[in-house]
């Protein structure tokens, strides 16, 4: 969910981590406003994930109706617009959300967490809890303050939502170990010389050269923003690197606990609690365009992982543009990994309903987005979830 992303050189701010570009080959998008949210993630896997039976909230009936079991499909790496994919770790997990549920402070919640703690180095899909402090490594570099840049945070290792370098670092240490002063790329990538060019003042580009000075912002024909960094009598230099390219954080990290992510992702009529690997659970909802919906869940206390993808549909490994065309039968959906000691499944479902607003009474439409790919629904993983979803 996060591995990549920014707009105008600034990271998108949110509780529970930050969205950052990690792959320099990706066309980075920067975020100024949630309505402009376009998180572009590295495609990490195309493995389809067998998911839950579906509960579609059909607006016309204003009630919850069951749909057939379907598969969660990862966005195709061949898509022209690269989007985040569900990790095969959804036999493992992902991160964050936004409900009004307070963090659990009961003795029961504490003992539950400690009873599932593992005495080993974490691996991809584990839920890790760390004590974290992040500070700009170059004090002269002004990096926008991030949520969760200090304090105790939990997330799914390898599941995005935090700096990729932080995931890599955590994977090398054991519970109780501390790393201090570790340099982590801030997420904007390194400066690239090929994004710097000299432009001759030969009159061929129609610019008023008297207005060109150091600091002037220009936009290229493809919409890419660049800044003038040097002006001479015969030419001027432009730089299309993100303003914070090459920036880094100094991280102090203590790994507090390692726990297994949720083991039960496929729907099971038996609801055998003994089959669960850990205490974390999975919820899946469709709220129209998945970008804004995912952001809402990222901000909720108790959510330790989010991913966007597709469910239902008949086309194997569809590209993002194919799904957006409404011809594949897929629904844009959000998969959430959460701590049931902190937030309940019902609270997560109600969060989705609150976000839908009056759109929950519309069929195949959320807001101005129309089409079967934007239909809303709740996709349950257990009979208990189905009962709760139908009640809500």
Automatic annotation (TrEMBL):
<dbReference type="InterPro" id="IPR046357">
    <property type="entry name" value="PPIase_dom_sf"/>
</dbReference>
<dbReference type="InterPro" id="IPR002569">
    <property type="entry name" value="Met_Sox_Rdtase_MsrA_dom"/>
</dbReference>
<comment type="similarity">
    <text>Belongs to the MsrA Met sulfoxide reductase family.</text>
</comment>
<feature type="region of interest" description="Disordered">
    <location>
        <begin position="1"/>
        <end position="26"/>
    </location>
</feature>
<dbReference type="GO" id="GO:0008113">
    <property type="term" value="F:peptide-methionine (S)-S-oxide reductase activity"/>
</dbReference>
<dbReference type="GO" id="GO:0003755">
    <property type="term" value="F:peptidyl-prolyl cis-trans isomerase activity"/>
</dbReference>
<dbReference type="Pfam" id="PF01625">
    <property type="entry name" value="PMSR"/>
</dbReference>
<feature type="region of interest" description="Disordered">
    <location>
        <begin position="97"/>
        <end position="121"/>
    </location>
</feature>
<feature type="compositionally biased region" description="Polar residues">
    <location>
        <begin position="97"/>
        <end position="110"/>
    </location>
</feature>
<feature type="domain" description="PPIase FKBP-type">
    <location>
        <begin position="120"/>
        <end position="179"/>
    </location>
</feature>
<protein>
    <recommendedName>
        <fullName>peptide-methionine (S)-S-oxide reductase</fullName>
        <ecNumber>1.8.4.11</ecNumber>
    </recommendedName>
</protein>
<dbReference type="InterPro" id="IPR001179">
    <property type="entry name" value="PPIase_FKBP_dom"/>
</dbReference>
<keyword id="KW-0560">Oxidoreductase</keyword>
<feature type="domain" description="Peptide methionine sulphoxide reductase MsrA">
    <location>
        <begin position="283"/>
        <end position="391"/>
    </location>
</feature>
<dbReference type="Pfam" id="PF00254">
    <property type="entry name" value="FKBP_C"/>
</dbReference>
<dbReference type="InterPro" id="IPR036509">
    <property type="entry name" value="Met_Sox_Rdtase_MsrA_sf"/>
</dbReference>
């Amino acid at each position: 969910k996060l591995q990549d992303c920014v707009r105008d050189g600034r990271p998108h701010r949110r509780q529970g981590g930050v969205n950052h570009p990690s792959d320099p080959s990706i066309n980075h998008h920067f975020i100024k406003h949630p309505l402009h949210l376009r998180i572009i993630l590295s495609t990490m896997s195309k493995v389809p994930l067998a998911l839950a039976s579906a509960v579609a909230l059909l607006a016309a009936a204003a009630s919850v109706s069951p749909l057939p079991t379907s598969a969660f499909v990862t966005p195709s790496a061949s898509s022209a617009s690269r989007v985040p994919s569900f990790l095969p770790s959804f036999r493992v997990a992902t991160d964050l959300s936004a409900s009004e549920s307070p963090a659990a402070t009961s003795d029961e919640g504490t003992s539950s967490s400690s009873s599932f703690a593992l005495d080993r180095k974490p691996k991809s899909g584990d839920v890790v809890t760390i004590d974290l402090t992040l500070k700009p490594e170059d004090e002269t570099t002004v990096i926008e303050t991030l949520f969760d840049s200090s304090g105790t945070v939990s997330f799914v290792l390898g599941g995005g939502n935090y700096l990729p370098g932080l995931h890599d670092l955590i994977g090398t240490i054991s519970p109780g170990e501390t790393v201090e002063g570790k340099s982590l790329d801030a997420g904007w990538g390194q400066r690239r010389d090929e994004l710097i060019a000299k432009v001759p003042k030969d009159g061929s580009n129609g610019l008023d050269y008297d207005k060109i000075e150091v600091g002037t912002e220009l936009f290229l024909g493809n919409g890419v923003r660049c800044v003038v960094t040097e002006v001479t009598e015969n030419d001027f230099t432009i730089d299309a690197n993100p303003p914070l390219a090459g920036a880094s954080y100094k991280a102090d990290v203590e790994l507090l606990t390692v726990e297994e992510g949720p083991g039960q992702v496929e729907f099971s009529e038996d609801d055998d609690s003994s089959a669960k690997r850990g205490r974390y659970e999975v919820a899946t909802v469709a709220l129209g365009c998945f970008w804004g919906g995912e952001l809402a869940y990222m901000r909720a206390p108790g959510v330790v992982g989010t991913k966007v993808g597709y469910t239902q549909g008949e086309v194997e490994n569809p590209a993002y543009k194919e799904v957006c065309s409404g011809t594949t039968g897929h629904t844009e959906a959000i998969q959430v990994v959460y701590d049931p000691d902190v937030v309940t499944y019902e609270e997560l479902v109600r969060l989705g309903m609150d976000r839908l607003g009056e759109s929950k009474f519309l069929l195949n439409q959320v807001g101005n987005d129309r089409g079967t790919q934007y239909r809303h629904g709740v996709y349950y993983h257990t009979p208990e979830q189905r009962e709760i979803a139908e009640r809500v």
